[in-house]
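note to self: dont lose this again. the chain is below, predicted strucutre after it. 407 aa total, dont forget to put it in the shared folder this time
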Amino acid sequence: MSAALSHLRVLDLSRVLAGPWAAQNLADLGAEVIKIERPGRGDDTRSWGPPYLHDRAGGETREAAYYLAANRGKRSVTVDITRPEGQAIVRALAAQSDILLENYKVGGLAKYGLDYASLHELNPRLIYCSITGFGQSGPYRERAGYDFIIQAMGGLMSLTGERDDLPGGGPQKVGVAFADLTTGLYATIAILAALAYRERSGEGQHIDMALLDVQVALVANMGSNYLCSGRVPHRYGNAHANIVPYGVFPCRDGQLVLAVGNDEQFRRFCTVAGCSELADDARFARNRDRVVNREALQPLLEVALRRRDGRDWMEALEAVGVPCGPINDLAQVFADPQVRARGMQVELPHAQAGTVPLVGSPMKFSASPVRYQRPPPLLGEHTSEVLGERLGYDATTLQALHEQGVI
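---
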């Protein structure tokens, strides 16, 4: 059976992370993805290392691990879009494509005739997704958008990190490029919605994705807390604004995460922990009371949890349905039997390294499973193949374009 999106072609003019992440999702779902890159340099993330992939002899390649994370399933075509001949190549490919992704500055592609208006006229069915820091409208639209800045401007850093009155207090960014990655996910959702609309209308459309919009959307319940109360939320470290106990707790041999979601779970926890009196205490019996009295409850729980090792706690609490878990580093994550059983590490053949290890897709389907069709491509690896296959360029034409620096 064909993969879910095997009937679609994607032209990926995006770079770095948000756009490539969306395009990789589409590739995992079966779409043909053609990645357009600058000759000689390519996607900026190709050089964002170390670490770099090692070849069969153990030497470093030019393929940074960062680049590898977001570009499997694609074919790389190098084209200089500043040249008329390069623009003609991209327009010809866009005329044959279903989806185009780009993350140039607002108006940046118009001077090349590669903006939405120009390509919509050429291909009215084209779904054209623009990803920028601040969107196509508004007073910040011409600013460059970087994940770190967006996490700060969009409120995430005001919510992340230890409380100011505790050691290590202060705003923190998330440990991965959260705004970029989630914008890539929202872009994927938007593209799939536009495809569904096109099925009924026959028309493509322009999708305007902004990192700041996504970050503001993803303050989620904390944003709602503010809008409903008028009170600006503050950082809770690993604690939760609305649920107690919910956080990192010390145990005899380290730390564990305890996430008690309701009053019945709290009572079961107290029974296992040998402190049933806390569940009957009027200060702690209901979640709303525990939230108000969290400072009084926290040290009592810490005393109880320090009595046993983390593994003992997890076995005992899981047995009675109280959510808890270890704090794993990435070596422990990829060794975890559940992660391994779910296929979250994959190995793909690679021209230089033999094989390349990658983080797998979390999407699981019963009828149209994800297919890992290609490793992240080498720079320009498929230029001749794609231009010959899609545009009918012969060897003489390709050689001439190469000598002119167009490809």
